[in-house]
Amino acid sequence: RVAASLRRRPLSLGRPGSDSAAPGPPHFDVVVIGGGHAGTEAAAAAARCGSRTLLVTHRVDTIGQMSCNPSFGGIGKGHLMREVDALDGLCSRICDQSGVHYKVLNRRKGPAVWGLRAQIDRKLYKQNMQKEILNTPLLTVREGAVEDLILSEPEPEHAGKCRVSGVVLVDGSTISAESVILTTGTFLRGMIVIGLDKYPAGRLGDQSSVGLAQTLEKLGFTVGRLKTGTPPRIAKESINFSILNKQTPDNPSVPFSFLNETVWIKPEDQLPCYLTHTNPRVDGIVLENLHLNSHIKETTKGPRYCPSIESKVLRFPNRVHQVWLEPEGLDSDLIYPQGLSVTLPAELQEKMITSIRGLEKAKMIHPGYGVQYDYLDPRQITPSLETHLVQRLFFAGQINGTTGYEEAAAQGVIAGINASLRASDRPPFIVSRTEGYIGVLIDDLTTQGTSEPYRMFTSRVEFRLSLRPDNADNRLTFRGYKEAGCVSPQRYERASWMKSSLEEGISVLKSIEFSSSKWKTLIPQASMSVNKSVPVRALDVLKYEDVDMELLASVVPEPLRKYTECTELAERLKIEATYESALFYQLQEIKEVQRDEALQLPEDLDYLTIRDVSLSDEVREKLHFSRPQTIGAASRIPGVTPAAIVNLLRFVKTAQ
Ligand code: FAD
């Protein structure tokens, strides 16, 4: 089929932006395949950038489906959501319309690593996402399965590469496009596993995607295999919550979106979560039935940081593991036992559940299951998420070896923006490691690849103090507005107001100086170590744990009162004060990294044959496979030695 599609020249490319009015197949600027978390963000971002966009997905009623946990955010993932929101993405706003339990994780640590998280009403999220997608200007949605890609033959003007120019649906109809984004999640040759049973499916109740997987393999993409799993769902009324530890939500709730000051539901009306634990009986059931559990026996790698109960029992024998009982929604009768992802046969899953405290009489509504699927080695894509092999073809989401809704959404926004920019021959929109968690995620994937499902963590990020959840708008909204056009004027104005208010507030706080003893009298709560001879700036006093803007303004109402009128502004001033001195040093380091990032490597460099630069065969192969775009990216490829980097640097400087 690929050979056929290679021969098949597009019938009519049409005028970019025209659709079925022209003869030949309908034409769109951007076609997105898949309506999951990556696909919805990609389609909406491309449309916001002004591209006529088509989202083709198996079923419209599964758009925005949360395949596993009913929650968004968490440590590192909350940062990604704030960055998606800063680029005017959807998931943060939709979560704020659908969250039922908000909790900031990592509160004991500094605000740079707080993890914004919420339990989400699964049904509401899907409804709200579908409403948003179906009402996005320039975005058309079509139900169908994409089976193949239409490709032009390799041409010299396309650097000898072939170029995607459309898609073929399972019914044989074609759609032509300037750019195509693949966001097929766990569906490429997806195979569901429960006990010893295995059957093809992308997730429970959904077909798998085999034609596309074959197309990609035949095109020469390196394909790997990964696995993941989900827990059983339990009837709420069958659980004895009264004997379990209850977790109440935060009050006030911290919204995900910069556009929201509050969320749709008051903290007192939100739902609690409950905590229970596994015990030796659970271990026994797992260990005695390994022979009935083919998912566990497979050598395919699963998510390290969201392991199945079987992996936990095998890796950490004789330990007790937490099981969080999380609500699936306001009017849902289901509870999601987080931590109990399992692929034992259904009857043994029920036996395992009822051996846990509080779940003795629990009724299992759906069994847990595992899914194994193809992913594409992400070293085959550039930082704009376009593939090296096929021009104008983009990959985003779980297809790139990541796990999680937030990782998928983050890649979706970037792919949507870049597919749109590419369709109109504009330069790519790249987020670097120094600018965002999105940059770290994509840089890690494209330079290092992954052999197990990749998830975001704060520990992956070198510039944590700068890349905070509170300042994602400052880092990305202006670039998104000016360079990509993916940000609405309203969001841009809101971010501009916040930026100028912060700058003004900081400069006012720097200008107010008091003798330290005076501050101590005025604010006895501020447990300062006071040097009596040196005056203290208000900004320095604000750094102390027990001082906030409200307290400062009660002492110096004029001019500080006005900075307390917006809670978000007051809190952000406090955070800016906290990190002021540490940031001074971090900014120097960021500048050094940016210097390396500015040293571009020629796109058409043939690492395998070039003789002007001395490199070992091993390094040549690694560079050939990953095709780094900058010296900085080359230096992060495992196995590319410092000596090779020095030689590359010399080569780049001579070539300039
Ligand atoms: P998906 O959300 O999977 O969306 C893919 C979309 O593409 C679907 O709408 C599908 O219908 C569509 N599609 C596929 N092929 C075609 C085609 N040929 N034509 C048209 N449409 C197509 N994540 C975690 O973080 N932790 C977990 O524990 C976890 N467990 C999981 C357990 C299971 C069983 C599953 C299925 C997923 C799990 N995930 C987990 C992963 C999480 O669901 C994904 O990370 C996230 O949904 C990925 O988003 P995506 O947009 O890349 O893909």
From TrEMBL:
Q: Where is the tRNA uridine 5-carboxymethylaminomethyl modification enzyme C-terminal subdomain domain?
A: 577-650
Gene Ontology MF terms = flavin adenine dinucleotide binding
Tell me if ATP-binding is a UniProt keyword of this record.
Answer: no
- Keywords assigned by UniProt, alphabetized: FAD, Flavoprotein
What Gene Ontology cellular component terms go with this record? Answer: cytosol; mitochondrion
Q: Known PROSITE patterns for this protein?
A: GIDA_1, GIDA_2
Functional note: Component of the GTPBP3-MTO1 complex that catalyzes the 5-taurinomethyluridine (taum(5)U) modification at the 34th wobble position (U34) of mitochondrial tRNAs (mt-tRNAs), which plays a role in mt-tRNA decoding and mitochondrial translation. Taum(5)U formation on mammalian mt-tRNA requires the presence of both GTPBP3-mediated GTPase activity and MTO1 catalytic activity.
> What does the subunit comment say?
Homodimer; forms a dimer in the presence of potassium. Interacts with GTPBP3; forms the GTPBP3-MTO1 complex composed of homodimers of GTPBP3 and MTO1.
Write out the similarity annotation: Belongs to the MnmG family.
Protein name, as recorded: 5-taurinomethyluridine-[tRNA] synthase subunit MTO1, mitochondrial
Organism whose genome encodes this protein: Dipodomys ordii
Identify the coding gene. Mto1
